[in-house]
Design a protein that fits this description.
Layout lengths: L1 H9 L36 E3 L10 H7 L16 E2 L2 E4 L10 E3 L4 E2 L8 H11 L4 H6 L2 H9 L1 H4 L1 H12 L15
Antiparallel strand pairs: 1-3, 2-5, 3-4
């Protein structure tokens, strides 16, 4: 008998509690059996997130003030890659309670790609490195011109750049990551 009493109470919803679209008082809903969930708990299929995260250009104070965004991009090891939350918005036609624009609960990696392939750059470095082609392709134009005028530092700079490239010390000038081959 108690089960039926609870069931009948849960089906009683007053007209002022129902808001068409979504209910912003998510926690104060009088009906605990409501199908509405908090917008920030929706699966990724129902939200659109703004990627990549905000770039603070090394300003950690701005990151601390906002509470999200990337100070540095990418790294050689997975453990060294920073993460950040991003702004997400609920897709049209999806009903939920709470704010429809929110910071994601999931952390996204601070990684950006700009079209630099490691293998291609290594081939450029071995074959045309004495002309500075590897540095031109990576965006280091100032040192590339110097390398071109000295013919790869009479071969020494050419060999040093191949070693730096293989060791991971010579990277794209915009601090982007190498494009992965799939």
């Amino acid at each position: 008998m108690q089960f039926f009493a609870i069931l009948s109470l849960s089906n009683e919803i007053e007209d002022n509690d129902v808001v068409h679209g979504y209910n912003e008082t998510c926690g104060a809903v009088t009906n605990p059996y409501s199908p509405l969930v908090n917008c920030s708990y929706l699966p990724e299929d129902f939200i659109r997130c703004v990627l990549p995260p905000i770039d603070h250009h090394g300003n950690s104070t701005a990151q601390e003030e906002l509470g999200h965004g990337c100070v540095k991009w990418g790294a050689q090891k997975y453990q060294d890659v920073g993460t950040s939350r991003v702004w997400c918005e609920v897709l049209d036609g999806i009903e939920c309670c709470g704010e429809r624009r929110f910071l994601s609960l999931k952390e996204f990696p601070c990684v950006k790609y700009s079209g630099h392939y490691f293998v291609t750059t290594l081939i450029y470095s071995v074959l045309l490195g004495f002309l500075g082609m590897d540095r031109f392709c990576l965006g280091h134009t100032g040192t590339a011109v110097g390398k071109l005028l000295t013919l790869g530092g009479v071969g020494i700079w050419w060999i040093v750049d191949i070693i730096l490239l293989v060791m991971g010390e010579l990277r794209p000038a915009d601090d982007s990551n190498w494009m992965p081959y799939y």
